[in-house]
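Every protein is a chain of amino acids, and every chain bends into a shape of its own. The protein below has been through that process, and both of its lines are reproduced in full.
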Amino acid sequence: MSPLKRNQLDWLLLLCVDATVPVILVWKTHSGEVQPVIALVSGLLCLLVGNVVVLIAIRNRNGRTGQPNSKWLVLGASGVGVIVALVMGVAVFGIPQHNNYLDLALSDIPLSEIQPEQKRLVVELIRHRAANSREYDRLVSEAKTKPRECGWKHGDSGYSAGEQNLVQ
């Protein structure tokens, strides 16, 4: 194979490695499986390791075949890695996360139809917490509109005479 053709295939290999990492991490972040910060850190590490492995493999292959190593490939790989890392950072933090559990909890799907059991339990917990939150909000709004009557007269501490002496 001609050196020019081999050089083009090297660039294609490098671009495929660099493009795969952000696509997968953005997809995992959007689906809610990975937090954005974790996706960014792991993506940067994967890009670094992936580029180093590809460049070492190309260097070793060129050494076996007697072809010279291109310094432009190393510089280009660094530049492409930086650009892909920046695009990945913007995409990971720019695309909102999607929560399937919350979508299921807000839907009218009965719990008996939600499978697997782990997903059903999480949806049940979310629905229970939402119901408790609505009940709490209702009680707070009632407390703000009408004061509670405790049965004590104004100035009455609620203690018996013996307890009042003990408190003083």
In short: Residues 36-65 form the longest helix (30 residues). Residues 101-145 form one domain.
